[in-house]
């Protein structure tokens, strides 16, 4: 309340009824502080604050300031402006209001998705490069088609072993460690492939099987990570992006392998593709976490969004295999997935050999 309203409501006094009194000369003067008001009164006519002059009336407010201790915390501040309120809340949450670069403001969950996408891209690049490199390798080492088939299938010996084990490991130690282990493992095996091929077939079989062990944990570890990082409303598009990395890796591997072989020889395919895994692993160590709860740099609003739409579950300790295998939909998925993989990997593995063998008779006919 202002000093004027205070005086008018609490210390109102009427001027004397006099013929020489002019209302326009009735002035109100006040002096006050917003920190506190202490007025003295009531005041009778002619005393205190109200006194008569010859032709005018003046009301003087004797205002005394009170000591006021300002609160140190920002909680005592009340903003009527909603923008100011939101800024205050962001400061309380610990957000840095200084302009950040766009890569710092990019959602962390989608960084995890892109890293999984790139891991699957490398996975299929390292998988299909043997389909191209096996042609000059078979010519150099004089391998028969049967031997070529054993070399190609040795990858899946290890790949079969770690599918289920990878999911159990991811639930136990976290998806970050398992996927990182898988990428490093198969990258090292890829680099060692030319060395093993020169040492002998048994070494090559073992290295290719080791490569399958590394790639076998990628799928379950990725599903474990995305189930914790991606909200349910965004899970379909994130999985679609990650799985598209596999097919992009097949296209990239089949496209660049012939160029590298033609310019630098067939070992260059394994050395170049395998070395990319070390670059990915360096970024993975600094940016990825198994769960949003483990990331200290995750913004509070994004962590709230992720955790509010996910259900926390304990790791599975006992798997009801009998119950799972007794369900017809499970067997329908198994059969359909088997047929899909049969056709896909037959084409990826043997299609370059098929075209190479098909073009050889045509070249012989032209020479004749």
UniProtKB/TrEMBL annotation:
Keywords associated with the record: Membrane, Transmembrane, Transmembrane helix
Localization (cell): Membrane
Stored PROSITE patterns: MFS
Species, as recorded: Datura stramonium (Jimsonweed)
Membrane topology note: Multi-pass membrane protein
Family per record: Belongs to the major facilitator superfamily. Phosphate:H(+) symporter (TC 2.A.1.9) family.
Domain of life: Eukaryota
Protein name from the UniProt record: Sodium-dependent phosphate transport protein 1, chloroplastic
Domain Major facilitator superfamily (MFS) profile, first and last residues per copy: 112-368
Record lineage: Eukaryota, Viridiplantae, Streptophyta, Embryophyta, Tracheophyta
UniProt gene name: ANTR1
Matching SUPFAM superfamilies: MFS general substrate transporter
One Pfam family matching this protein: MFS_1
Transmembrane segments: 110-130, 150-170, 177-197, 203-226, 238-261, 267-289
